[in-house]
Design brief:
Layout lengths: L1 H6 L5 E4 L11 E4 L4 E4 L6 E3 L2 H8 L11 E5 L2 E5 L3 H8 L8 H12 L7 H9 L1 H16 L29 E3 L5 H9 L4 E4 L17 E3 L3 H4 L9 E11 L9 E4 L8 E4 L13 E10 L8 E2 L3 H16 L3 E3 L1 H5 L5 H18 L2
Parallel strand pairs: 1-8, 5-11, 9-15
Antiparallel strand pairs: 2-3, 4-7, 5-6, 10-13, 10-14, 11-12, 12-13
Helix pairs in contact: 4-5, 5-6
Bound molecules: ligand 40K.
Length: 360
Amino acid sequence: MAERLAAVAGLRVTLIDKRAQVGGQCYSRMDPETGVECHAYGSHIFHTSNEAVWNYLQRFARFNGYRHVVHAKYRNRVYTMPINLGTINAFYGGSLEPREVAAFLQREVEQAGINQPANLEEKAVALLGRPLYEAFIKGYTHKQWETDPRQLSADIITRLPVRHNYNTRYYDDLYEGIPWDGYTRLFERLLDHPLIELQLNTNFFDLGARRKEYDLVVYSGPLDQYFNYCEGRLEWRTLRFDVRRYSEPDAQGCSVMNYADLEVPYTRIHEFKHFHPERRPTPGTITYTEYSRAAGPEDDPYYPINTPRNIELLQKYQALAQAEEQVVFGGRLGSYQYLDMDDTVAQALAVAEQIIRLRP
Ligand code: 40K
């Protein structure tokens, strides 16, 4: 939004961030010890089918040819995700052909005998059958949300993608890639405009009377914090990463390995060097082991938790936000919505355009 308001409308923009760096959760940095660029807040894989968003970002970055594939370990075997013909054949030790998959899954589902799924577990079993659910959904979902899937709502999933072929690409969008020289460089180029001033290490809530110097505020912090949590706190999941460095070139052989067993306390391991196959090889590597937990007041919010309580709270805050003059709320934190990077950009472009069109 800063780039659009400055470059298109010639408006002066101050970008305020409490962190020491730009880019929010997309921030990436070179690890000096291994020479590997790490996504400080977990893996970010850009993918979109939105031509406008893709074309817009081409001004600030070249994207490499990375194509995301997710591997998953379960009981000491490795599979690919989402569930595809390779996963099914490896898991059941079979050699099904594409035309046989639908009938095979139907028999698995019938065996489970679930008519009216009452929770996420029953819904998933009604879509996949019990063995595939128990291997690939049960433990992983339990760890993500720290909740037994029988306690989660069935509406969380409407469908579970199962590929009846050996396509292992995680995303089916038209465009995909990682910025050639990293996400942080993308943001630096985006913000490199004489009308944009950066104020890092600055808490928006410490502005006090200086708030009045601005005609418009674009607020992308937590929605409930803006209103001093007056209706109660919106709940989030946060992630914690354990960093490990290796003096060998490859630790796990792929960028993201999911851990499906409930007994393994972490959810995923990220090995960032695999996001840049085009870069010069390095003798060492670095991994981030991911743990999920409920966000406390001091933790970075990552994922909204869409329980009835939070949805009800959100509606109250949305009403307050509507009534707030000269403030627009946006982004994942400002809207309490899980947003992919491309949707976040699309939202920002649309709101910026509206502001520019309606400006006095
Ligand atoms: C959503 C609403 C959630 C929790 C945890 C880990 O891998 C990711 O970062 C995203 C995945 S995929 C996804 N698509 N929509 C949500 C909608 C809340 S979260 N997710 N959630 C993800 C996720 Cl501990 C990953």
